[in-house]
Amino acid sequence: MDALELVPLRGLEVAVRIWHPDAPKTVIAWHGLARHGGDFEGFARALGPEWRVLAPDTPGRGFSSWSPMPAQDYLYRRYKTAALAVLDHFSLEQVPWVGTSMGGLLGMLLAAEADSAYRIERLVLNDVGPELNTDGMVQLALYFGSPHHFATFSQLEEELRAHYGGFGIEGDDAWRRLALGSARRLPDGSWTYHYDPRIGEQFIHDTPRNSWADWRAIRCPLMVVRGAESPLLDADSVLSMAEAQPGLVTLEVPGCGHAPMLDRDSQVAPIAEFLTRPQRQRLPPHPQTHGNAWWRRMAAWLKRERHLKGTD
User: Fold this and answer.
1) Domain range for 232
2) Which 3 state secondary structure label does DSSP give 91?
3) Which pTM was predicted?
């Protein structure tokens, strides 16, 4: 990164990594569940010097504060507050948003709700959408809801290679950089991941939403990137997303699962084209509809799995 700013937030601090701080155009890039803003280094370099890339670390990750009250703060509503605080700190009335996984769902929330929709000029979702594969969600929640300890740094890097194989990362140097940005040393000298191990509690405490209603309510230009081998975002779901939002731009990345790193020209160039294309006039929002059955099923399944595995 080229700069780092720290944004105060109700006793916490949100770290924002910045590339090309003097560029004329700005885009927000928000990371996934257990990652941090540093993942957008390659994206920022590929996007080019005309773009200022602001990549916050969500509370509980990276350089941002850990919450003393995870059940209250590691929720999408709180992340929305953090996002608006970042926009206000940088005096951004409206901005394009690129979100990977959790960061994409946060962008959806902002773009769908009446009090914040005008802040999102256009939205790129990286391997996420209003309907996610339940098996993939459960496995994700179970993995990041459990503590991870490694006796050596090499063991941590080996585990990263196994778990993040879907990122499409190429080369030993790239894996080493990922490990360096993912590791935290414990008092006994062992290693763990950089994030607060309680971030997974959002799967238990967060309020289910009707994500399809959110998706239909969005009126800014939309793009979705999908890893061709994604265990989280099914190809059929992307088709349904396009039916609900006929102007949706889609990109499928071969050789990737969840989620593409957005660190090479073949992935970034289509996003750059989307970010700069002329925008049509916004339409009024669709009325919200009821029906969050999918979220309820996923939450119930997750609680049962955690109970069976003894992680409650």
Assistant:
1) 3-308
2) coil
3) 0.88
